[in-house]
């Protein structure tokens, strides 16, 4: 007789009945008179209790190995002494659907790099990591909900480009039917093209590729980007408002769905941010930091990681807020397509968003005036020829617009208090890591 | 005085008031005593009516060019004689935010290839194409709604791979810090790894890359794939059920939100499919087709495009249904990782889904037993070494599973009756097309 699958978290509803549970052997305790199997599925742990009887079932249970995939059919019975839900399964049949070899290649003491070699086992055995992917799902859905409610259109821009338009050095190059193609390091040029195509608000979640030999805890050669581009804005403030509202909505959704579980597994509290987020100009931020002894030489244009952490700490102390927009970046450290302030052409109408000291977003109003764009590209020493397809989008009625690019892994990293972007990815890619 | 932006579709609510409308010059009619500007934003068309008065406004309107991005501020007045909503805007100020050069590089008679060179203008000027992206947004959201309700997790699997595991010939190769990497031609291996990682149901929408020199109306070198993988299935039927339910839900959502507009712009009706979809084995399909004279030589293993169209027509006549699952593909035309039928090892537990004669999905139960998988790979002449990372996922308790890969562009193409996948993409990529 076939019994349909019941999730471990639903066993309580089936006390007194025979059910099948599908999952993995979490642990085995084979005692003199009793055999205990702790089963795990994606909803929880359950105890299977068998009294030795010299029968075939005893032999089957004895032969189980940790992490084998099994279907166990048995009666669910009340058992107040059992810590796992106060119930146990008395097995009637055990089916090994895929045995796990022994020993397992990793255990709970294995270092991160080796765990990444066996990421599927690492993820499967860590309830916190399972939770992280559930949080990712909810977070994305929350961002989409907000974006759709604002009238955004989900676009899928190409990752294959004919030229390394934005900046050649950090771009992967590939063979393409006898010529070269390049991997998009962001949807930037294409989402602007979508704005020129009359899409009012562009939303995209997809992979972005960076050929940077960076080995920090926050860089990857491939990561998931959340991209937004908004047409007909009155200024960069519209972009910041969109982002803070989108994040507040999505974080509230995560807190609601997973707040307790996150507190349990990651020992962090998810605080739903109030809006508006604090804003501070780069000049103000640097003034504050320098008073605290940052950059004693006084030649830094950008914030370094230490500066990001310090200014976030300052804002947290001053306002209680975990987020801060740093605005008005100097033109020297922003790309040519960022619009410059009319009243101070040495700064751009741009921002970074920091969350608990980590940059999670870069955004800006874009320069949509063709002649100004050409001039700014020339000032950066860029030749217009390789990017003519991009520039053409500004010659036939491109509206004012601005947008943002957010790193999904960084948001998860900060939200869950992870040490490294490696742990916020399913299968991390870095200069030294292309597998599994 | 600043007036906030009003969408054209909302003008009726503002009759008697002064508003700003932002959009493009759709058409100009400059008559002897009157100037008419037809404005377009993403919500519709509106008429701007100005009586010549030798003033500065007259000169500004006279200098407008088609497709320029403009903000026009004026009074909304009732005008029963105006076809566009029975109202017009009497302008008070015109601001050209980005002028369009003349002449425009394409018009409504331009052939497809040249329109693709200027895709942003092509999309902007075609309300039907604008609608297509709205339909795409709704369709994806419908699929996600269904998948999430079933407990699916949104995963982002890497597009960069260390080896060309699945089949070397069709894979793009790139330089990667002194060695080679490859672009994933599907998330296949990685979504199976997610199943081995204990993710119960995997959902992903993302780019897939095919280095095939195919020049048909339905192939692209980069397209958006919808991927699903389900753990602990009882058989491939579970995968087909998931797909038909997901599609029925998503298509119903599209029909509800856009059915009327689709009928108007594409002259096709969106029929919400009933479930279950018809199913037919490959052997049955070929028998039916051969009776009709298909494949007179009698050596075809797979359906060719003509066969796909014919069998869909047959099913439509027999059952009234637009969809059909073709099941039990012979092992010779399926990859090594498809599970074979226990009662007939010459066929796989796999399917294609055809919609109105076009293949939109391939799916299968996967072989999760390590020894069987090794044997099937060897039979296909594949060496296990380059795919050891993949094979390892089956050595430590990988549950039974199956899934599907759907081409989003193909679904849009069939739904809207488009002639080519080129028109179902924002920026198409093919062997001869890497720009814009």
Automatic annotation (TrEMBL), chains A, B:
It is found in: Cytoplasm. The gene is aspS3. Belongs to the class-II aminoacyl-tRNA synthetase family. Type 2 subfamily. Signal peptide: none annotated. Residues 188-191 are annotated as: Aspartate. ATP binds at residues 210-212, 359, 407-410. This is Aspartate--tRNA ligase. Its EC number is 6.1.1.12. Pfam families: tRNA-synt_2, tRNA_anti-codon.
């Amino acid at each position: 007789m076939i019994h349909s699958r019941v999730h471990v978290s639903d066993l309580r509803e089936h006390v007194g009945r025979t059910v099948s549970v599908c999952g993995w052997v979490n642990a085995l305790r084979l005692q003199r008179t009793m055999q205990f199997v702790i089963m795990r599925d994606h909803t929880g742990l359950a105890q299977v209790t068998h009294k030795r009887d010299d029968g075939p079932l005893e032999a089957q249970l004895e032969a189980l190995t940790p992490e084998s995939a099994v279907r166990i059919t048995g009666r669910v019975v009340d058992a107040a002494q059992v810590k796992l839900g106060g119930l146990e399964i008395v097995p009637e049949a055990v089916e090994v659907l895929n045995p796990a070899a022994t020993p397992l290649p990793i255990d709970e003491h294995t270092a991160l790099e080796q765990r990444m070699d066996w990421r599927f086992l690492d993820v499967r055995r860590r309830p916190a990591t399972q939770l992280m992917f559930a949080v990712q799902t909810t977070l994305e859905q929350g961002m989409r909900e907000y974006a759709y409610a604002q009238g955004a259109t989900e676009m899928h821009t190409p990752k294959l480009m004919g030229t390394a338009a934005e900046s050649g050095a950090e771009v992967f190059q590939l063979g393409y039917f006898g010529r070269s193609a390049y991997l998009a390091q962001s949807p930037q040029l294409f989402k602007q093209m979508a704005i020129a195509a009359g899409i009012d608000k562009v939303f995209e979640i997809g992979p972005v590729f960076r050929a940077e030999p960076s080995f920090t805890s926050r860089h990857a050669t491939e990561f998931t980007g959340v991209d937004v581009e908004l047409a007909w804005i009155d200024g960069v403030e519209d972009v910041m408002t969109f982002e803070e509202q989108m994040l507040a909505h999505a974080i509230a959704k995560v807190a609601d769905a997973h707040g307790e579980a996150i507190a349990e597994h990651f020992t962090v509290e998810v605080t739903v941010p109030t809006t508006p987020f604090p804003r501070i100009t780069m000049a103000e931020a640097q003034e504050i930091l320098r008073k605290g002894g940052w950059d004693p030489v006084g030649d830094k244009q950008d914030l370094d990681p230490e500066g990001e952490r310090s200014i976030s700490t300052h804002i947290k102390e001053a306002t209680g807020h975990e987020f801060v927009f740093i605005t008005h970046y100097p033109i020297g450290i922003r790309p040519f397509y960022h619009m410059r302030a009319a009243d101070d052409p040495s700064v751009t109408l741009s921002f970074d968003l920091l969350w608990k000291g980590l940059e999670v977003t870069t955004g800006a109003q874009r320069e949509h005036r063709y002649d100004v764009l050409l001039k700014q590209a020339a000032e950066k020493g860029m030749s217009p020829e390789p990017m003519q397809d991009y520039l053409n989008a500004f010659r036939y009625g491109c509206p004012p617009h601005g947008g943002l690019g957010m790193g999904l892994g960084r948001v998860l990293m900060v939200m869950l208090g992870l040490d490294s972007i490696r742990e916020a990815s399913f299968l991390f890619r870095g200069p030294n890591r292309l597998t599994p």
